[in-house]
């Protein structure tokens, strides 16, 4: 008897695979409007600063998808899972991932986003696109909407905080200000009761509770350059405030909203925030990214399994 076969659409934001793809990538993000020459130069410089023209970012996602497929099949030997990528702003697009499933004969599918926290503007928009194509192609698909309190996700994050705290050899850990961060979104999400900010605080509080942390706060990062207000305070403002007003000398950033080494981690934190920290005389570290950590892969796998069981019940 053959195993049931389930397609897994693994969705993420996407990233250009090389420097010459940056303009097309950001034109797609800007809904067909090409970035100005100044914006393109700034964006290119950011990518060059983190990798010198070599792009590991796309490879990070490829490895995560491969590791997830391996983990799903190891933990669920009675089922065959086949993972497909669906990217928001790069190929293969979300629609292309769904279409490939159908071409491969997949009749049952589940989608998951490489982001633990739900927002209508992020995860919700991915799901909407996947649902539309699946309905058009006659594919039965369901979705993991969030997994921000999945125990193994919290385990993996706690290990990273503990390991990073060991880097502060000159002080007791209680003196290190821990700043949990995530990608900012426009403030208008608050008016519709979007769960994103609350879920991020719940993840942060869960980590703090597990590790008995009391010296922590939340900050936002990587806000878009648009006229409307975005959620704050921004991480750079947080660093200035804790250093100048509170005389904090050691800080640890834990970007709980990111699951791999994105531009927002490698540039916004490792270069931009570090430059400000040096200027302020602040010892700043960050936790290591989850990437293909086995615990994170198991967290994703278990979230998928629970979702499938819930539908069958």
Automatic annotation (TrEMBL):
It is found in: Cytoplasm. Fe(2+) binds at residues 183, 264. The keyword Iron applies. Keywords: Cytoplasm, Heme biosynthesis, Iron, Lyase, Metal-binding, Porphyrin biosynthesis. One of its GO terms (cellular component) is cytoplasm. It catalyses: Fe-coproporphyrin III + 2 H(+) = coproporphyrin III + Fe(2+). It is an enzyme of class 4 (lyase). GO terms for molecular function: ferrochelatase activity; metal ion binding. Its main location: cytoplasm. Fe-coproporphyrin III binds at residues 13, 30, 46-47, 126. Pathway: Porphyrin-containing compound metabolism; protoheme biosynthesis. CDD domains: Ferrochelatase_C, Ferrochelatase_N. Pfam families: Ferrochelatase. GO terms for biological process: heme biosynthetic process. Involved in coproporphyrin-dependent heme b biosynthesis. Catalyzes the insertion of ferrous iron into coproporphyrin III to form Fe-coproporphyrin III. Belongs to the ferrochelatase family. This is Coproporphyrin III ferrochelatase. The lineage of its organism: Bacteria, Bacillati, Bacillota, Bacilli, Bacillales. The gene is cpfC.
């Amino acid at each position: 008897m053959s195993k049931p076969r389930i397609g897994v659409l693994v969705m993420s934001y996407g990233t250009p695979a090389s420097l010459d793809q940056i303009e097309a990538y950001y034109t797609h993000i800007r809904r067909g409007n090409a970035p100005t020459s100044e914006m393109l130069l700034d964006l290119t410089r950011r990518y060059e600063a983190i990798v010198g023209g070599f792009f590991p970012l796309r490879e990070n996602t490829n490895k995560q998808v491969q590791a997830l497929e391996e983990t799903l099949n190891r933990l669920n030997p009675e089922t065959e899972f086949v993972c497909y990528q669906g990217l928001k702003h790069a190929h293969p697009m979300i629609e292309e991932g769904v279409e490939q499933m159908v071409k491969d004969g997949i009749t049952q599918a589940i989608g998951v986003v490489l982001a633990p926290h739900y927002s209508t503007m992020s995860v919700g928009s991915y799901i909407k696109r996947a649902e539309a194509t699946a309905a058009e192609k006659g594919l039965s698909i369901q979705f993991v909407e969030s997994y921000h309190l999945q125990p193994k996700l919290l385990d993996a994050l706690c290990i990273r905080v503990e390991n990073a705290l060991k880097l502060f050899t000159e002080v007791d850990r209680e003196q290190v200000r821990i700043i949990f961060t995530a990608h900012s979104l426009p403030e208008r999400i608050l008016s519709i009761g979007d769960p994103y900010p609350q879920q991020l605080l719940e993840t942060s509080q869960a980590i703090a509770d597990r590790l008995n942390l009391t010296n922590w706060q939340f900050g936002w990062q990587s806000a878009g350059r648009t006229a409307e207000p975005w959620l704050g305070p921004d991480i750079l403002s947080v660093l200035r405030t804790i250093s100048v007003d509170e005389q904090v000398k050691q800080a640890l950033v834990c970007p709980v909203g990111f699951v791999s080494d994105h531009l927002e981690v490698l540039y916004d934190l490792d270069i931009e925030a570090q430059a400000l920290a040096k200027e302020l005389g602040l010892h700043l570290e960050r936790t290591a990214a989850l990437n293909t950590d086995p615990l994170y892969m198991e967290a994703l796998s278990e979230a998928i399994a629970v979702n499938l069981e819930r539908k069958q019940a």
